[in-house]
Specification:
It is built from 16 helices and no strands. It is an all-alpha fold and 322 residues long. It has a domain of 197 residues. α7 packs antiparallel against α8 and α12 packs antiparallel against α13. 34% of the residues are buried.
């Protein structure tokens, strides 16, 4: 479906990370997101909501690990809904006011892709899906990797079952390719830093979000400088150049600028379709995370945040935040 009037009417914001981090650029992305969703056809609306499931995963991981990072309001789920999904608890209501079946019914109503829900159920020690047989519960350390593995499966149309309300087969090409690009960047960043720090293969393996054995081996134990990705991923050289930037904040800024260029390039094939809408939202999402830092203290606050993390946690944040 084409959205000529919607695309033509989108407010253009300068992609100025410095201004955003300094408090000079205010964008109400949650409200813009709500407005745009109201203009989309049902299938496209679900696809955009799936794009924002990325932030639900960050919130789920933050809730489970008690990271102390601010709740990301870009996600589809509220803080209470994340608590319900993970713990089957309802904040603000006294213990014992809801029966287990009532909690389960509320949790089932949440807008969460089936593949993501299955991971959370495994984490709780339950079954992935009816009739699948009992699976070993996930550890806290494995939860984030499995959530993102299944997120990319759904976006790329490879998740088992009906995916999210039967829309897997009709997901936009932009979303499929963006998910592939995003996963590749995440893995290159993780593999590069792990190699740089000399971490053993078993630690590297836990950081890589990839199911294809050939690619996993390239990321974990491959000797090629580019992890064998130069012929597979058109932005490999640029990602590696960004990773050579010593200053962490400047590296983040350059990586975000590259992500925006990747989204822009993908949207050229669907300029008045939902691909262009997603491209627009990705750009705003990236600016929003910089504007979320305290005005005038963007760089300093970012440094303080990273300084409070272990090196492994810092790498995890670098591969996840966008």
């Amino acid at each position: 479906m084409q959205y000529y009037y919607l695309v033509a009417g989108l407010t253009e914001y300068p992609f100025d990370i410095e201004a955003a981090a300094a408090g000079g650029l205010k964008i109400d992305v949650p409200e813009i997101k709500r407005t745009i969703l109201g203009e989309l056809a049902p299938a496209d609306r679900r696809a955009v909501e799936l794009l924002y499931t990325y932030y639900d995963i960050l919130n789920i991981v933050g809730y489970v690990k008690r990271t102390g990072l601010p709740f990301n309001v870009l996600g589809n789920l509220s803080h209470k809904e994340v608590a319900l999904l993970v713990d089957r608890t309802v904040e603000g209501e006294g213990e014992g006011t809801l029966l287990p079946e009532e909690l389960a019914a509320r949790e089932e109503e949440l807008d969460v892709p089936a593949a993501i829900r299955a991971v959370v159920e495994r984490f709780r020690g339950g079954q992935a899906e009816e009739g699948a047989g009992e699976l070993a519960p996930l550890s806290v350390e494995d939860l984030e990797r499995e959530l993102f593995l299944n997120f990319y499966r759904v976006c790329e149309g490879t998740a088992e079952g009906s995916g999210w309300f039967g829309l897997v087969a009709r997901l936009p090409e932009f979303l499929r390719r963006w998910a592939e690009y995003d996963r590749t960047v995440r893995n290159i960043v993780a593999a590069y830093k792990a190699r740089q720090l000399g971490w053993p293969a078993e630690v590297r393996a836990r950081m890589i979000v990839e199911e294809r054995q050939e690619l996993r081996e390239a990321y974990v134990s491959g000797l090629a400088q580019d992890f064998g990705m130069r012929d597979r991923f058109p932005y490999t050289e640029e990602v590696l150049q960004v990773l050579e930037t010593e200053d962490f904040v400047e590296r983040e800024r350059r990586m975000d600028a590259l992500r925006v260029r990747m989204a822009d390039d993908l949207a050229e094939q669907d300029y008045f379709g939902v691909g262009r809408v997603m491209d627009y939202l990705i750009r705003l999402n990236i600016l929003y995370r910089w504007t979320a830092l305290e005005a005038g203290r963007g760089r300093e606050e970012f440094r303080e945040l990273v300084a409070g993390l272990t090196e492994a946690e810092a790498i995890g944040r670098a591969t996840a935040r966008r």
